[in-house]
Automatic annotation (TrEMBL):
UniProt entry tagged with the keyword Transferase: yes
Domain of life: Bacteria
The protein, known as: CoA transferase subunit A
A single MF term (Gene Ontology): CoA-transferase activity
Keywords tagged on the record: Transferase
InterPro entries attached to this UniProt entry: CoA_trans_fam_I, NagB/RpiA_transferase-like
Record lineage: Bacteria, Bacillati, Chloroflexota, Chloroflexia, Candidatus Chloroheliales
């Protein structure tokens, strides 16, 4: 059995400037935030992101100046912010290149990449302006061969005369980074609760890096092999990162941190207060362990622990936090 365990900083340092990358999770759930903070501390630039439903993971990367181009459905933190402030500002200021699809279209694109086929036929964009508007110019697409030559293609179904289908291009990335509940040293992955599109994202990437709440014995995972969503041969590196998704939730481990999300979103639409957030919680700490102390340490974290039955914290105060 190979040992794929490496340190978080070492794993993040493998991602070069300009890399294509996707991150696992969904809005306020299971984003690899400790890894993303490392990328910001490394001051990575010109990253090219692919995602279906990112949240503050993308927002803070975009705000920190790490991102050049994105392809996505939306970027938001549910009730905390219906659109990411740094993402909105970057678009309004022309600081980022972007293309948008529906959520289902992006998942279909990841699925095509995972299956090794060039595109996926769907119906979900028919009747939508997303079908008729294309943001990336032909020149921008030609300038980067990793971008599909066109956003999509509408054609008649070869099987049903008169029926239209939309072909969306497959996604292939250099890296996928996902945060999970359990992994073994050689890369067998267990995801509890919803998996979102993490598996598809992993299978269309050259290099999969997994950050995990727990490193467990492989024999334990093999007792229920049907619950292991990624096999060892799909994963290149594993990092042990407890609370690696904070301030986002990890089902059965901890809930999202409404106070930290409020702190972020209260100031993220202002350049000065956003920089203060980065200075305090990202640049001002050496690593994830120091970050956890700065946000409140064990006292804060213990209040987020998930109920073993529900998988989240039913008594967590989520509103009127002032």
């Amino acid at each position: 059995m190979s040992n794929k365990l490496i340190g978080l900083a070492e794993a993040a340092a493998m991602v070069p400037d300009g890399a294509t990358i996707s991150f696992g999770g969904f809005t306020t759930q299971r984003h690899p935030m400790a890894f993303i903070h490392e990328l910001i501390r490394l001051r990575r630039r010109n990253l090219y992101l692919f995602g279906h439903s990112p949240g503050g993971d993308w927002d803070i990367l975009i705000g920190a100046g790490c991102v050049k181009r994105v392809e996505l459905a939306y970027e938001a933190d549910e009730a905390f912010n219906t659109i990411g402030s740094r993402w909105r500002l970057a678009v309004e200021r022309g600081q980022i290149e972007w293309e948008d699809y529906s959520n289902f279209a992006m998942v279909s694109r990841f699925t095509a990449g995972a299956m090794g086929i060039p595109f996926m036929p769907i119906r979900s964009l028919l009747g939508s302006d997303v079908l008729t508007k294309e943001v990336l110019t032909p020149e921008q697409r030609l300038a980067d061969p990793r971008t599909a030559s066109k956003k999509l293609e509408v054609m008649n179904s070869p099987f049903n005369t008169g029926e239209k289908v939309v072909l969306v291009p497959a996604i292939h990335t250099e890296f996928a980074v996902i945060h999970v509940q359990k992994a073994s040293l050689n890369g067998v992955v267990r995801i509890e609760g919803q998996s979102f599109a993490d598996v598809q994202q992993a299978l269309c990437a050259d290099t999969v890096i997994v950050t995990a709440e727990e490193i467990v014995d492989e024999d334990q995972l093999r007792e229920e092999p049907e619950r292991n969503l990624l096999p060892y041969f799909a994963v290149k590196h594993v990092c042990h990162v407890p609370y690696g998704s904070h301030p986002y939730a990890v089902f059965r481990y901890y809930d999202y941190d409404p106070r930290q999300l409020k702190i972020y979103h209260d100031g993220s639409d202002d350049d000065a207060t956003f920089q203060q957030y980065l200075d305090k919680y990202v640049y001002g700490v050496k690593n994830h362990a120091e970050y956890l102390q700065v946000i409140g340490g064990e006292e804060r974290l213990s209040g987020l622990k998930a109920d073993p039955v529900y998988g989240y914290s039913p008594n967590l105060k989520r509103r009127r936090l002032d």
